[in-house]
Structure prediction request, 175 residues.
Amino acid sequence: MTVALRSPQLVGALIPVDNAPVDANLKSDFHKYVQGMRDIEEAQVKRQAEADELLQKHEEALPIRQFLLTNFVRSSHGQHLRLRIPIKILALSLDKMGDFPFNDPDEAHYDGQTLIVRGTKSHYVADDVLPLIGRFFPSFKLIDIDSGHWVISEKPEAFRQAVVDFLREVEGRDT
Prediction:
């Protein structure tokens, strides 16, 4: 959303996933996820299965663990998994991760086609922020998916279909 508002010419269409253009308090789960990722790094595990086993202590839902594990890559020596972004940076960034840099939709808006994907069991895109979304993104369309915040991991097929349908619609407008 920030790129679309700062440089709209760079964005052909926009699909924010369970995020709104407001400062948001992150759920307390994020701190336990960081601790789980810290545990994985400290254990210097060699396989995703080992990392997943450690992460189970912090998150029981497999789709969420699978998403969190995408943050790991092989170390340069190929011996163990390491985080793409150092854990210290992630931990220090948590408090600001929910911040949104724009406050006034009269100063910045994106007129391109926008699909807001909302997890119906999540609190990040509440009904009361929809008018503000419309001011920042006047051409937005909303799709609700029966999931929590981790829409892509929890309901991958529903998410994929929503994106395909939206992109077909956008493509049809451009022809």
